[in-house]
Amino acid sequence: MSDFFSPGWHWFIVAVSVAGLVFCVWLLFAASKTTSMSTDGTTGHVWDDDLREMNNPLPRWWLGLFVITVVFSALYLFLYPGLGQAKGSLGWSSEGQYQDEVAKANAKTAPLYQRLAAMDEKALAADAEAMGIGQRLFINNCAQCHGSDAKGSKGFPNLSDKDWLWGGDLAAIKHSISEGREGQMPPMAAAVGNGEDQRNVAHYVLSLSGSAHDSLRAQLGKEKYAACAACHGSKGEGNTALGAPRLSDKIWLHGWGEQAILAMISGGKHNQMPAQKAKLSPEQIHVLAGYVWSLSNASAR
């Protein structure tokens, strides 16, 4: 209830909740005092000549349960949050309970993470317990984008191969997880030239990886590719310091072919991986990074 944008909503919830309880109590007592509309104990309604609707009082056990329900509701609203922004006399909150449970879990696992934090990537990859923890951390925090098998999809890097935008050693992976990454390729149409020049550059880029291309266009596009070489390298080798992809292999993060490359040249691309340091402890990030490293270094496991 803390996200109310106006104090008026707080009082509205309080009024509705209290009025509801008061109405229930009034209805109970009003109904208990209602007398029959007929002297023979019925409501006076008759169907099929002899079918009469009775007006017997409610059973006492039912009345008792009703009263207990109302009292319980009032007591609950006094002890716990429920009346608008009121926190309740116990001061309980779901966020507070969550934080307490996280603190208890962290205290319980602290000795284990302390042991794992002293290991390098090869030792982590060879430790079955570390890999089990790393896999669960990956499924809970990374699989939404990179897939449960870490093979990624269009726009989301494959973490199980040797192709790394920002570097694949343990330190680089830990930095990526902790601080996040932001890759920006600006639109290059103005630097490359007109539509034909852009097509020529696209075919030159295809030629760098040995992909099917028009050799004449590739030859014409080599000079214009100089505008791209500052980030991707003169031979398309990429640059992990900038997160610039390698163009000399056949791994295409945003799609393969002339049209996909033209779209990148004309429109550019902005990719962002969110930082995880607010969600994961340094020890968890260390183990997770070791697991990610192991995916592309299977021989170490």
From TrEMBL:
Primary subcellular site in the record, as a coarse category: membrane
Location(s) in or outside the cell: Cell inner membrane
Annotated binding of heme c 2, by residue: 185, 228, 231-232
Keyword Nucleotide-binding among record annotations: no
Segments crossing the lipid bilayer: 12-31, 61-80
GO annotations of cellular component type: plasma membrane
Pfam families reported for this sequence: Cytochrome_CBB3, FixP_N
Cofactor: heme c
Gene Ontology biological process terms, A to Z: oxidative phosphorylation; proton transmembrane transport
Cell inner membrane in keyword set: yes
Record text on cofactor binding: Binds 2 heme C groups per subunit.
Keywords: Cell inner membrane, Cell membrane, Electron transport, Heme, Hydrogen ion transport, Ion transport, Iron, Membrane, Metal-binding, Oxidoreductase, Repeat, Respiratory chain, Transmembrane, Transmembrane helix, Transport
Domain Cytochrome c: 129-209, 216-296
InterPro entries: CcoP_N, CcoP_N_sf, Cyt_c-like_dom, Cyt_c-like_dom_sf, Cyt_C_IC, Cyt_c_oxidase_cbb3_su3, Cytochrome_c_Oxidase_Subunit
MF terms in GO: electron transfer activity; heme binding; iron ion binding; oxidoreductase activity
Pathway in which this enzyme or protein is active: Energy metabolism; oxidative phosphorylation
Binding site for heme c 1: 142, 145-146, 273
Domain of life of the native organism: Bacteria
NCBIfam families noted in UniProt: ccoP
Family the entry assigns: Belongs to the CcoP / FixP family.
Quaternary assembly: Component of the cbb3-type cytochrome c oxidase.
Function: C-type cytochrome. Part of the cbb3-type cytochrome c oxidase complex.
Name of the protein in question: Cbb3-type cytochrome c oxidase subunit
Source species: Inhella inkyongensis
